[in-house]
Amino acid sequence: MKSRLHTRQITFRQLEIFKTVADLGSVTQAAARLHLGQPTVSTQLAKLEEALGLALFERSGRQIVLTDAGQDVRQSIRRIFDGLDDLEACLDQRMGLR
Description:
Elements (H helix, E strand, L loop, with lengths): L11 H13 L2 H8 L3 H15 L4 E4 L2 E4 L1 H27 L4
Antiparallel strand pairs: 1-2
Helix pairs in contact: 1-2, 1-3, 1-4, 2-3
């Protein structure tokens, strides 16, 4: 039976952390932007990679580069977050906020 992604222990916060690290190319910079400690960011990335069963980054010293799987995850997360932004705008419009 095929494993379902939504049944894995993945949080939106982990996805947000991943996206920020991927966008900035730095765990330290992402931690600062998200007002989190660097160890917290690293731990959440490790938990996300464990849940997905794939390495999302290649690490070499302080440099961090997306793997092919990381690129796929990044593209999907962008679509998810864009969809949530669209939903928020739609609901705001219904409530007369825009």
